[in-house]
């Protein structure tokens, strides 16, 4: 979602992004590590959480995706929801990249736990841990499935996709020096 060419360089050409060298990535990882070790028994009662799992590595052959979900919340209504910590400030809207990642985590949870997922939560650590709810419906799952098909097409066929239309993203991209615009 950030840029289709990112998939091309990282997963088709297998050029590492070396994100471990980036300051914000390092800081974000430290915050994730701290969050995963503090309040492990704490359940968000206001959200109706009855159980949670922390840092779950999940994969799905069905969707051909994998990821580490910061927290899986099992709710009183019999559904589950991913909770993802973002090293970001909340800017009065939920970006599509965050929403689609939350939907993919939801797909992983549905596939691995055979449980309905119709919402996700984002915690913006740079906005006093502001909690935002993301409602997810079948249309959202269908959109993400199309995105996943495009990603698989890039990886399998070496299709060189169009770059993002948001040129500001190019400034902070690790592939900016090799990307032909």
CATH class: Alpha Beta
Structural class: alpha+beta
* CATH architecture classification: Alpha-Beta Complex
How confident is the prediction overall: mean pLDDT? 92
Strand order of the largest sheet: 1-2-3-4-5
The helix content, as a percent range, equals: 25-40%
Give the biggest beta sheet.
Answer: 5 strands, mixed
Shape: globular
Strand content: 15-25%
The radius of gyration computed from the alpha-carbon positions, rounded to a whole number of angstroms, is 17 Å
Instruction: Tally the beta strands.
Output: 5
CATH topology description: Lambda Exonuclease, Chain A
The H/E string reads: HHEEEHEEHH
Unreliable runs: none
Number of individual domains:
1
The first-to-last residue Cα distance is: 17 Å
Counted by DSSP, the helix tally is 5
What does this structure look like?
- The chain contains five helices and five strands.
- It has a single domain (4-171), classed as Lambda Exonuclease, Chain A.
- It is globular.
- Helices cover 36% and strands 23% of the residues.
- The chain has 181 residues and is of the alpha+beta class.
